[in-house]
Design goal:
The structure holds three protein chains of three kinds. In chain A, a hairpin with a 4-residue loop joins strand 1 and strand 2. Chain A has helices at about 1-25, 30-45, 50-55, 85-100, 110-130, 135-145, 145-155, 160-190, 195-200, 205-220, 230-235, 240-265, 265-295, 300-320, 320-355, 370-380, 390-405, 405-430, 450-465, 470-485, 500-510, and strands at about 60-70, 75-80. Chain A has one domain (about 1-485). The relative contact order of chain A is 0.09. Chain A is mainly α. Chain A has 21 helices and two strands. Chain B is mainly alpha-helical. Chain B folds into two domains: about 10-240, no CATH class; about 240-495, no CATH class. Chain B contains 23 helices and three strands. Chain B has helices at about 10-20, 25-45, 65-85, 95-110, 115-135, 140-170, 185-195, 205-210, 220-235, 245-260, 265-285, 290-320, 335-350, 355-370, 375-400, 410-415, 420-435, 440-445, 450-460, 460-480, 495-510, 515-570, 575-600; strands spanning about 50-55, 60-65, 490-495. The radius of gyration of chain B is 39 Å and the shape is elongated. By secondary structure, chain C is mainly alpha-helical. Chain C has helices at about 1-10, 15-35, 50-75; one strand at about 75-80. The chains are: A mainly alpha, B mainly alpha, C mainly alpha. Chains in contact: A-B, B-C.
């Protein structure tokens, strides 16, 4: 099995590319769809053993492979996964066949190019999560831009060129900073290998600048307030599969970047900028909630809710403790599952009504019970109802956050109320509507294909919600290692945490009164 | 956990999911069967701790069965039977499902042994009960439901926040008595969560708002469960917390005052719930064994008689379509039995001798006097007078008697409700009287039975009877003398919900207006600050390129051409001469070059 | 319905019903003054004859007047106050 261990990641990365090449020679639309589905499902199945074969007792990178690539600059082809990235890889391979299924009837022109774009994106996305060499990471990071821009720009909505351009410019400008950081680190350490860079100690001044470079690049991707404005435009104009990929995977790359680069490589700077980033995250949670509340376009509503959810993720990451980081990783996975599902559902609505307007879609659930059930479950999951996946993630983030600062959490909690407000409003409108709903009598309930698309996500909502243990176990050692790495150069001395302060106050109250 | 412990809520929740699959003929039977099964399960449960589940790093306890939870579980499952029977003829499956999930959530919260489980069921209760409001189907119902849900989500989050803080500090998630002598911020947050569900002012406005707007049978369920679960939680977590005593007394009087002003009979009853729960909250605050007994006994009796009252008014609403006093009156001819049942409910709530309220409410008042908190005792007695005033007198009088004539259609529609509603009301009435007459039935279920048994000896003393009868009957005298002052007016009363209703509109305006504008501005900022200057710079560069550089090159080129043209004139026609000229010029240039080079 | 006829019967003899009720009230106060054992009373005020009668009557009047004053001072509004 050692050859499986060595080559599995490389297979996962390049198989979609091979599939794309295979599809390029086909003509029949029928064959294109089925083959794309076959390939992506096969890749998903091949990646499944990663979950069970992952060794949960060690924190090192597993399934690793290193080969020299450009020896002149010490660049290697190095891939490997740890507890955090393996979950993200599995999420990617799972979501891909669902994207193909969701685009079955949605894409009517240039189907071949569309499927090829999707597959190239899969290569890039898996590559980003597996890369252990900085240059390799950067190559995959950039490689993802063009297919996405094409996905929006060719198969998108009315303002697709505007949205595609906006997405491209925003992300590209961020990548420039990433490149600068990459080169700076190489000049300091002489290596591009990520595990080696993690062990290196940089000067505080250097860390500050590199952290800022990282921050701009990743914050645009997450997207953190105020760099988020490309997201609503991109989501609204993108086709369903594009939105799903954007929400489920691409946004995670930003937070993954923080976890893989900012925290272990620039720990001093992380701690230095931490209060600022924590408060920006809280602002994102509230702001995303407020803007989502004002929307009538379903896609924009879900897009702004992503800003709020990712605010939770960054909050958990920069809490820098076990609970917060575990919660953040879970939030990433859960958001991928739930928001991906919500976008698929919006796509389903669009295919039937040719509108994304909430007022037009009012009352659809009355005639479509299966649809209403799915929407209900995913909306409840999005507002973190206990028993669903999001509750565990947000709960752990809250727990981690409380250990840092009570004031912070008290400001973040209203964001959850806002999430409830807009999600409930959306759910109630779609499922029951008001007293004068538009006529939906001719609209059909979900077909078998659509149920099949949503079923794995539905199962995951409850699986992670009711039995999160396996997922937490996988990420535990990696998260512990990350906390260790991030804490090795803490700026402040261990001051009494909010929790300890409470206890101390309790004692002094009874003795001084 | 070795063997599977059947949680009663599981029966309700699973049972509710099966409702759509039961054929119509068997549906009524099924609807009665499941609550009976749950009730049977509850009364046969043995005491102890069951249903432990390992979840991540914590242990969840689903079944903590002791006297305190049993007394609540008993009456709640009993009320579920009556409520389902009352609504048996409702055709929408969704209403039954919502009601059962709601009761399941309540019972789950009662038996929860740890905070996480409590929170889970707390949220289930909120989300399922909102449907009982939404099913009414009016435009106001939609908004009332939203407000209800959002208030409860906010309360649930306060609870969650307090829980996380408390359990992180205490190291355990068990739901036990909190330290009421030294409250921490965590304790306060948990308290806020509990008292919001108990509808303690100022967090109470959701109750009349939602309960007055729910379906006719939905209100029967609503009145019984949310507030009593909160009372249970307060009994479990905060016995003896001093601030609850004044809060409870204020509640009791607050509800009474607003009830006098109310025009809608069901909203009046809802304000009444606030008043009665005030007794229970005060009891929890007093904290003695008799006071806790009183709170539990009163909760038990309250569920029954409040359910009965809502059943009576619900019947009026269902049969006539009206619930406002200004639209009703003189129905005694058409719905006499409903009148009798409602009257029994009114007499129970007023604590008339021989009825359930007499043996339960007085326990709290006696506990207050025993603690020498005289003002508590007297103010609660005052609230009792107010209680009889509206629930025992105003409601029956203005609906069934009174000088007001309803519209003709209303009067014509009125008739006795269907058999199932009458039977449900009859059973509830019988129970109210039974509890009042035969005290051991209730008293043995209380958490401190020996203390209750002691009290039982004094409850029917002549003094007590005389005291109660005097208050009530002279209140009746006051009512009839001041009848003109009490004539219903078609108004609504503003309450604390004014703040978040007007506030909510302002909030929505902020979300739609300034925030959206800001977002669009920032979104376009990249265009104004980024793209446009970039394009302008690009155009300038392009211009520079075209005009300056190219100009230079072009100019040079045309210059060269011009010179060339001039030189063409100098050219002769023959090649030799041109060649000679060319060579001559070249030679001159070379000599000049060598000359200058040797010089430098 | 037998019940409806019973109520009709009582309504027809309203004056008699009222007289009997007033008699009952007087009897109640007399019973309280002379026959009831006031050992359980918590305060001295309660031993006063007919204490609770006054408490009930004046309490009721106080509640009605206070509530109506409170309501008419601005709390009570027309029914469509909240409609947009």
């Amino acid at each position: 099995m050692s050859s499986y261990n060595d080559s599995i990641l490389t297979i996962l990365i390049f198989a979609p590319l091979v599939a794309a090449a295979a599809l390029a020679v086909l003509r029949s639309e029928h064959a294109l769809r089925w083959l794309a589905l076959l390939f992506t499902t096969a890749i998903a199945l091949v990646s499944a053993p990663l979950f069970w074969q992952f060794d949960t007792s060690i924190a090192d990178f597993q399934f690793a492979l290193t080969r020299p690539w450009i020896p002149l600059f010490n660049i290697h082809y190095a891939v490997g996964v740890d507890g955090i990235s393996v979950l993200l890889v599995l999420l990617t391979t799972l979501v891909m066949p669902l994207c193909v299924l969701a685009s079955w009837r949605y894409i009517k022109v240039r189907l071949k190019e569309f499927m090829v774009c999707l597959l190239i994106m899969e290569t890039a996305m898996i590559g980003v999560f597996c890369a252990l060499d900085f240059v390799l990471f950067f190559v995959f990071w950039e490689a993802m831009l063009i297919p996405m821009a094409l996905l929006i720009g060719i198969w998108g909505g009315p303002r697709k060129i505007y949205a595609s351009l906006k997405f491209f410019i925003y992300t590209m400008s961020g990548s420039v900073f990433l490149l600068v950081a990459l080169v700076a680190i190489y000049l300091q350490t002489g290596t591009f290998s990520i595990p080696e860079i993690m062990r290196h100690e940089f000067s505080h001044n250097f860390q500050k600048w590199v952290f800022l470079a990282f921050f701009i690049s990743f914050a645009i991707k997450v997207p953190m307030f105020p760099f988020h404005t490309w997201l609503p435009a991109a989501h609204v104009e993108a086709p369903t599969a594009g939105s799903v990929l954007l929400a489920s995977i691409l946004l995670k790359m930003g937070t993954y970047g923080f976890v893989r680069f900012s925290l272990p490589m620039t720990p001093w700077a992380t701690d230095y900028f931490r209060p600022f980033i924590l408060w920006v995250s809280v602002v994102a949670i509230i702001y995303g909630g407020l803007t989502a509340l004002a929307q009538t376009d379903l896609k924009k509503l879900v897009a702004y809710s992503s800003v709020a959810h990712m605010g939770f993720a960054t909050l958990g990451i920069f809490a820098l403790n076990q609970s917060g980081l575990e919660g953040a990783v879970l939030v990433m996975i859960n958001h991928g599952v739930t928001t991906g599902a919500l976008f698929i559902m919006v796509g389903i609505i669009y295919e039937r009504l040719h509108t994304r307007d909430l007022t037009q879609a009012a009352g659809m659930g009355r005639r479509m019970p299966v649809f209403a059930t799915f929407v209900g479950v995913f909306a409840l999951s999005s507002l973190a109802f206990p028993g669903t996946n999001s509750f565990i993630g947000e709960f752990l983030v809250l727990k981690g956050g409380f250990e840092v600062s009570i004031a912070l959490m008290i400001c973040a909690v209203p964001g959850v109320v806002l999430a409830a407000a807009y999600m409930l409003r959306m759910l109630q409108r779609i499922a029951y509507g008001g007293t004068n709903n538009p006529d939906h009598s001719k609209v059909a309930d979900l077909s078998a294909r659509e149920v099949l698309t949503l079923a794995p996500l539905f199962v995951l909502v409850f699986w992670i919600g009711l039995n999160p243990q396996p997922f937490v176990t996988i990420m535990k050692p990696s998260v512990a290692r990350l906390v260790e790495q991030a804490e090795r150069e803490k700026v402040q001395e261990a001051r009494p945490t909010a929790v300890q302060r409470v206890r101390i106050t309790g004692i002094s109250v009874s003795s001084s009164r | 956990m070795n063997s599977f412990w059947l949680h009663p809520s599981l029966l309700f929740i699973l049972g509710s999911l099966l409702i759509p699959l039961i054929p119509a003929r068997a549906k009524r039977f099924y609807l009665l069967l499941v609550p009976f099964l749950v009730f049977a399960r509850v009364i046969t449960m043995s005491k102890g701790t069951f249903g432990e589940l390992n979840f991540l790093e914590w242990t969840l306890i689903f079944g903590r069965v002791d006297a305190l939870s049993q007394v609540f579980g008993y009456i709640m499952s009993l009320m579920a039977i009556l409520g389902t029977l009352y609504g048996l003829h409702v055709k929408q499956d969704g209403q039954h499902i919502a009601a059962w999930v709601y009761v399941g959530g309540s019972i789950g919260a009662i038996y929860a042994g740890d905070f996480l489980t409590l929170f889970l069921f707390w949220e289930i209760m909120a989300f399922s009960s909102v449907f009982l409001v939404w099913y009414r189907g009016r435009k106001e119902s939609l908004w009332a439901g939203y407000r209800y849900l959002l208030v409860h989500v906010a309360g649930g989050l306060a609870l969650l926040g307090g829980m996380v803080m408390h359990c992180t500090a205490a190291g355990s998630w068990e739901f036990t008595q909190l330290d009421v002598q030294n409250p921490t911020p965590a304790t306060w947050l948990i308290l806020v969560g509990f008292i919001l569900n108990a509808a303690v002012p100022p967090l109470h406005a959701w109750l009349p708002d939602a309960y007055g707007e729910a379906t006719f049978n939905g209100s029967v369920f609503l009145c019984a469960f949310t507030t009593k679960t909160a009372v249970y939680a307060l009994c479990r977590g905060f016995p003896g917390m001093d601030i609850l005593v004044p809060l409870g007394v204020i509640m009791a009087l607050y509800g009474v005052v607003y009830a006098v002003l109310e025009n809608d009979c069901r909203r009046l009853l809802a304000y009444h719930i606030i008043s009665q729960v005030g007794y229970m909250v005060a009891g929890v605050g007093l904290g003695t064994q008799m006071a806790i007994n009183g709170a539990c006994a009163h909760a038990f009796a309250h569920i029954l008689y409040k359910g009965l009252l809502f059943m009576g008014c619900g019947a009026v609403l269902h049969m006539t379509g009206e619930s406002k006093f200004t639209e009703l009156g003189g129905l005694w001819k058409k719905m006499p039995w409903t009148f009798v049942f409602t009257l029994i409910g009114g007499l129970s709530i007023s604590a008339f001798p021989l009825f359930s309220g007499f043996v339960s409410k007085s326990m709290i008042v006696a506990a207050g006097f025993e603690e020498h908190k005289l003002w508590v005792g007297f103010l609660l007695m005052l609230a009792s007078a107010g209680t009889f005033l509206h629930t025992g007198l105003k409601v029956p009088y203005f609906i069934w008697f009174g000088k007001n004539q309803p519209r003709k259609e209303t009067f014509d529609r009125a008739t006795e409700p269907p058999w199932n509603m009458n039977v449900a009301m009859a059973i509830a009435s019988v129970l109210c009287i039974f509890i009042g007459c035969y005290t051991p039935y209730l008293y043995q279920m209380l958490p401190f039975p020996s203390v209750a048994a002691d009290y039982a000896k004094t409850v029917y003393s002549s003094y007590h009877i005389s005291e109660t009868l005097q208050i009530l009957l002279f209140t009746g005298l006051g009512f009839f003398l001041l009848l003109k002052k009490l004539t219903p007016e078609p108004t609504i009363s503003l309450d604390m919900d004014w703040f978040y209703r007007i506030g909510g509109r302002a909030f929505s305006w902020i979300a739609r207006g300034p925030v959206q504008t800001l977002d669009t501005f920032v979104g376009e900022l990249y265009r104004y600050a980024g793209l446009i200057p970039l394009m302008i710079t690009a155009r300038i560069a392009g211009m520079f390129d075209n005009v300056v550089i190219d100009g230079l090159v072009d100019g040079l080129a045309s210059g060269v051409r011009g010179v060339g043209r001039r030189f063409r004139i100098a050219q002769r026609g023959q090649m030799q001469e041109n060649l000679a000229l060319a060579f001559g010029v070249t030679a001159l240039l070379i000599i000049a070059f060598i000359f200058y080079w040797s010089k430098s | 319905m037998k019940l409806a006829t019973l109520i009709e019967f009582l309504r027809a003899r309203l004056k008699l019903v009222i007289r009997i009720s007033i008699a009952a009230l007087v009897l109640l106060v007399l019973w309280d003054t002379f026959l009831v054992d006031k050992e359980h009373a918590h305060t001295d005020a309660e031993r006063f004859w007919g204490f609770w009668s006054f408490f009930g009557f004046f309490g009721c009047v106080a509640i009605i007047l206070a509530s109506k004053w409170f309501g008419h001072s601005g709390i009570m509004k027309r029914e469509d106050y909240y409609d947009e």
